[in-house]
Amino acid sequence: MKKPNDEGATPAKDEWSTRHSVLRSAQRTAALVNALSASSALGAEEPAPAANTVISTVEAVLREYGEKDPLDVSAADVTEMRAVAALLREVFAAADTDAAAARLNRLLADGCGPVRLTAHGGGTPWHIHLDGHDDAPWAEWFLASSCMALAVLVWDRQRPPGGLCASPSCANVYVTGGSGTPRRYCSPRCATRERVAGHRRAKERLTEGG
Question: Rounded distance, CA 175 to CA 188, Å?
Fold first, then answer.
């Protein structure tokens, strides 16, 4: 977590652990990767969103996942975080567990500091960080916290931590579930859209064949 909660107020341990669990941290990573990658996924005719719009979107994701104001994300922060998002996307795009682990090992070695414990001056329960210090830049925190969460998911599940949406019209990443049928889409909306499109194509083939 980049910043402590409201100054002088330490959240209950159970409440804090729920908001900052490994799974939720990984889901925050996916949400930030998607928010930061949105402009690069647009077609050539689509105008890139304004810097203030991207900043607002990133800050909204951070708040949703438990970060407290003032966030003070700058345009420079967004530029650096976007570069991190591109690196993390490679982990989500890994074809198998070995590839995901290799990519995470490279990011952990190149971009993360030694493991340390912090309580943000008493503002939070003690927890692990891999960034350099509590006031590290947003991009450094984003890379370190994401790598830690995704690495723990690989360790715990022995499978890739996520994937890329299978919809050709979507560039989002997602975090996989712990078990069951492998997930293919980032959301029910994408799954429904592709299912409808598949039915339409099948109907057209039958019509043409008849």
Answer: 14
The pLDDT tens digits of the residues spanning 93-128 come to 999 999 999 999 999 999 999 999 999 999 889 999
pLDDT surpassing 90 at residue 46: no
Neighbours of 183 (CB within 10 A): 15
CA dist 32 and 162 (Å) reads 14
DSSP string computed for 129-166: E-SSSTT--HHHHHHHHHHHHHHHHHHHHSS-SEEE-S
Q: Show Cβ contacts of residue 103 under 8 Å, excluding neighbours closer than 6 positions.
A: 90, 91, 94
**pTM, to two decimals:** 0.85
User: 131: which strand partners?
Assistant: none
Locate 41 and state its tokens.
Answer: 């996924």
